[in-house]
Amino acid sequence: MKFFGRSLVAVLAAGTMLGVPLASAKDDKRRDKPKPQTRRIESTGKWAFKRLERAQKALGEGQPAQALTSLNEMKGRLEKLSEHEKAMMWQTFAYAYSSQERYAQASAAFEKCLALNVLPEQSVINARYNLAQLYLVQENYKKAIENFEIWFRAAENPNADAHYMMAAAYSQANRPRDAVPHAKKAVAKAASPKESWLQLLLSLHFQLNQYRDGAGVLKKLIARFPKKTYWMQLGAAYTELDDKKNALGTMELAERQGFLQSENEIRNLIQLYLYNDIPFQAAQTIERAMKDGRLKRTSKNYELLANTWLHAREREKAIGPLERAAEMSSNGNLYVRLGQVHVAEERWGPARAALSKALEKGDLKDPGNVHLMIGISNASESRWKQAKSAFSAAQKYNKSAKSAGQWISHIDEELTLDEYEQQLKEAAERKANGEAADEGDNQEAAAADGGGAAADAS
Fold first, then answer.
1. What range defines the domain where residue 385 resides?
2. What is the CATH number of the domain that holds 300?
3. Which of 48, 110, 322, 426 is the S-S candidate for 85 at Cβ 3.0 to 4.6 Å?
4. For the segment 339-391, what is each residue's pLDDT rounded down to a tens digit?
5. Whole-structure pTM over 0.90, yes or no?
6. CA distances (Å), 156 to each of 126, 184, 192, 261, in order?
C-alpha cells in the first residue's frame, strides 16, 4: 500500500519503530523503547525463564533466528508451561517475528498473548499498541482501529506518534472525520511535525472540503518545507474559497521564487490578475514570460497580451501584439479586432488597411460588419464613393443590411446637400461675376458720356 508516495511500512517506521521491542506510546516524555521483562517472577519456572532470557538476549543482539530457536523449544513443551510462561513466550515470539517483518505471524502471536490475559497491565497496554501497529502495516484497518481504540482508552497522555497512526488508520478506512482530530493532535503535540503528518492532515481537510483549514496546514508546510507543490495547492485552496486576493498573493510569491514555469501556471497567474482587476501587471507578466520562454510566441498568446493591454486601456500597447496575432492567425478575425481598435481611435486609414486584410484572409465570423466598418471609415473622411461601395457590400448580409441601408441613405442625403450647396455656390459665383460685368459696363458708359460733354464744351 502506498501512502503519500511512500509505503506505509516506511511511514510508520519514520513515526514509530516497528522492531524489537515495538514502540511504546505512553507519553511524549517517556520515548525510550520498553525492554522485554527479564526479571524472574514467581510464575516463571527456571527452565522457561532461561529460554526466555536467551531469546531476549538474541533479539537485543539483532539475531531473531537464534531467538526463535529458543522460543520453539518452549513451544515444543507448551502443555507443560504455565499461563504466564505461555504469555511471555507469545509476546517474545511477536517481537522476533516483527524484527523479521513477518507481520502476520507477529500479530497472531500478540493475539495469543493477550487472550491469556495474565500479563501486568502495562505489558498488556504495550502489547495492544504493538498489535494495532502490526494490523495497520498489514492494511487490516478494521483490526488496527479496534486495537488502537482499546489502547487509547487505557493509555495515559498518548504521544504524537500514536495520534498520527490512529489518524492514518481512520484515513485508510475512509473515515476522514474520525481521522482529523487525531491528525491535529499529532501535529499539535510534535515539537517539529513531520512532513508526512502535515500531508495527512492536509489530505483529510481537502477530502472534507475544509479548504480554510487546509490553507492553514499549507502555510505550515510552506514555512517548514517550502516546496512548489505546497505553493500551488495553497493558491488552489484560496481559489476554491473564492478568495481571489489571497490566491493572487500566493501565486505572486510563487512567481518571485521561480516556481511558475509551465504555460498553465503562468496563465493561472494572469487570470488571477484579471480577476482582481489588475490588467497592467497581467500584461507585464505575459511580456516577461514571453521574453524568457515560459510563454510561447503564438497567435493565442499575442492575442491574450493584446486583450490584456486593452483591458488596461492601453490601446497603443495593444496594437503591436494584435498585429502579430493577426498575422499568425489562420483566419481574418483578429484583423477585424485590430480594425476595431483603430476605429475606436479614429485612425481611419489604418482601420481600412486592417479590415481589408481581414477580408483577404477570410473565414470571418461577421463579414457584413467588416464591410460596414470599412464604409464608416471612408464616410468619416468624406470618401463617399468608396463608403457607398462598402455599405452596398454590407447590405448583402442580414445582420448588417439595415445599418448599411441607413448609411447609404445618409450618404445620399449628404451628396444631395453637397450638390445643392455646390449649385448655390456656383450661382453665387455667377451672380458675383455678372454684377462685376454690369458695373464695368456702367463705368464705360459713364466715361463715354463724360467725354461727349467735354467735346460739347469745347
1. 347-422
2. 1.25.40.10
3. 48
4. 999 999 999 999 999 999 999 999 999 999 999 999 999 999 989 999 999 99
5. no
6. 12, 18, 22, 50
